[in-house]
Amino acid sequence: MPTSFFGWDVRVVDKKEFVDEIRSMIEPVVNSEGVELLDVEFRRERQGYVLRVFIDHEDGITIEDCSRVSSTLSDFLDVMDPIHHPYHLEVSSPGLDRPLKKPEHFARYIGSIITVRTTTPISNRKNFKGFLRKASEDEIILECDGSDFTIPTGLVEKANLAYFETEKARKKQKVRHIPLCDK
Known about the structure:
Order of helices and strands: EEHEEHEHEEEEEH
Radius of gyration: 18 Å
Number of domains: 2
């Protein structure tokens, strides 16, 4: 089995760097299909390596969108051959609890409940859940347990929309404070 990706030794390659390289390679292809590339994952799973591509569109994603993008990406990746061993390609919508990766993703969901995990502690914690109050290129402000936490975007390891909790809060018309922080 080959031991390189883009000529890198897989034993020393940085996974994030590799995924970023794949992302930059496939993003124009995905965008050409009229959808947004939301996220890329590459991991070893029970059935082998999986390249998982999440796509989005303001009007939502259909099975036909996933199928069309999968076919186009499969052809593109066969030609470019960046992964030198067998893998499975999966193209999917991000689901209801979609990841938030870019500043514009955070901006789109201001007023929603989100979960955030940071790379380093902020106020002695790394996990947050609360209302997203503000979002900019450099930081987000999350209301959690009645307090506002300013989180630099560079420290966000993972962030997701908490869709069902947001909808439940909207139905109850609780738009200010819900004690939802993970301590």
